[in-house]
Amino acid sequence: MGSLVPPSAPPYIPPYELVGDGPHRVIAVHGWLSDRAAYAAVLPHIDRRAFTYVLPDLRGYGEARDVPGEFSTAEAAGDLLALADHLGWDEYSLVGHSMGAAVVQRLLAAAPQRVRRLVGVAPVPASGMPLEGEQWELFAGAAEHPENRRTIINLTTGNRHPDAWLDFMVRHSEQHSDAKAFRAWLDSWAREDFHTEIAGSTVPVRVVVGAYDPALTPEVMRQTWLRWYARAELVELPCAGHYPADETPLELVRAIEDFLMARG
């Protein structure tokens, strides 16, 4: 008689884009308000001879817009491990923007021996974000109300960018994310605290923040990232807010790749 236990489902491999063919492999993860196109403005400027970047779409975004799931940072870490295995990458560096930084920290916690270096860009700490009252309502309502997304983007970049750019960012966010998944992701990246799983890590870490980001400030980084990672350093981009990839792409590429190429 055959076994009554069904075979295990194959691991889920998120849709992805590969850029470059260099020996240093990098997993770059997007944030809450965009899919992998969050890195589009920096791609013309990366060193494709030194690096190979993989840019995945998290569940609920881009080509994975209709993929079901828990929409959590822990689930995403498992998906990215499966992606790394699929690519045959035993070792890699990590880059994460905003919510994506919480995801790559989960990946670090799950497989620390595989991570060379980690860069958090305007990064959510592993302790989540203390959104309360009207601020929580603003973010929670962004799934259904595009004006909330616009307000968030405008506030977190210092209320200083053209209306056309804000409109583009909101339109792309709406068209490339599933509303229910988008809302579910908020509960994970904002409310989960897993910092004890990464505290004391000796993986080299660089935290990149924008001077016009009113929430994820240098002081927040000193109280979280720089306190928990033994080899962490902070870089502030003076002309950026929460979206350095769009606001100051050349400066961001330099901040990322100089660090990833460093020795030690």
UniProtKB/TrEMBL annotation:
This is Alpha/beta hydrolase. InterPro entries: AB_hydrolase_1, AB_hydrolase_fold, Carboxylesterase_BioH. Keywords: Hydrolase. SUPFAM superfamilies: alpha/beta-Hydrolases. Residues 26-242 form the AB hydrolase-1 domain. PANTHER family: HYDROLASE ALPHA/BETA FOLD FAMILY (PTHR43194), PEROXISOMAL MEMBRANE PROTEIN LPX1 (PTHR43194:SF2). GO terms for molecular function: hydrolase activity. It holds the Pfam family Abhydrolase_1. It comes from the Bacteria. It comes from Streptomyces palmae.
